[in-house]
Amino acid sequence: MTESGITRAIVTGAGRGIGFSTARRLIDGGARVAVLAQHRPSAEAAAAALGGHAVALAGDLADPDVNAELMTEAMDALGGVDCLINNAGWTLTQSFLAEDRAYWDRIIGVNLQAVIWSLHTVLPRMIEGGGGGSIVNVVSDAGRVGMQGEAVYAAAKGGVIALTKSLAQEMARHRIRVNCVAPGPTNTRVLEENMGVGPEAQKKIESMIRRIPLRQVAEPDDIAAAIVFLAGPEARQITGQVLSVSGGLTMV
């Protein structure tokens, strides 16, 4: 048994940010981790930084065939799986009426459908392994309470929350736990892409921080700590739950 209680994990969106921090925590706890990113240079750089217990895999998880191939390759490389972290996600903050179908397809593909496809490939192998397991889906507080400028993103993340609760009920008999972590504002590249850079961006960030009761933006490792907790044995009695890590921004 490893320190984290996890021996073989798959982490999507692990080339940087929350996914990379999560993979690092799992590896530090003794796990072998398949590090998945959209682009191979990012996956390989992350795996190199994480050391010999990381396996680099790359591809577009929003493509169902690629998704199935990557999940199968990851499980084969690890010799099975006992933990899946669906972390990959993306959004741009903009008005609903300014969006188009191509944007919606990408948002729903990356944030909802990719999670469905990953779970549909991984869960049978996890069940066959007979040792239980854990799933953590990284969502967003936008999916819990809605968010101006992120309507379809919120809908996609809300779908993942509903999926999580439903699968938690179905998978309990196999001793597989399924939970969500919902980050609030976090210091990642996606936040930078949405806020921009320069004085105006700084004003937006300061305004956002004033709305957070703890008066700080989370760091990726703050979210990773919650993910690894829910994935590990200390959370053995927790399933079907959504844990917000938002500095108190949402308390519903």
Quick summary:
The protein is of the alpha/beta class and about 250 residues long. The chain has 9 helices and 7 strands; from the N terminus they run βαβαβαβαβααβαααβ.
The H-level CATH homologous superfamily of the largest domain, spelled out, is NAD(P)-binding Rossmann-like Domain
Quick one: biggest sheet?
7 strands, parallel
* SS elements, strand count: 7
What is the CATH topology descriptor of the largest domain?
Rossmann fold
**Backbone shape:** globular
Please identify the structural class as seen in this structure. Answer: alpha/beta
The overall pLDDT average reads 92
**What is the level 1 CATH name of the largest domain?**
Alpha Beta
CATH architecture of the largest domain: 3-Layer(aba) Sandwich
Total number of distinct structural domains: 2
Account of the protein in words:
Strands 3-2-1-4-5-6-7 form a 7-stranded parallel β-sheet, sandwiched between helices. The termini are far apart. With about 250 residues, it is α/β, with parallel strands linked by helices. The longest helix has 29 residues. It folds into 2 domains: about 200 residues, 3-Layer(aba) Sandwich (Rossmann fold); about 30 residues, no CATH class.
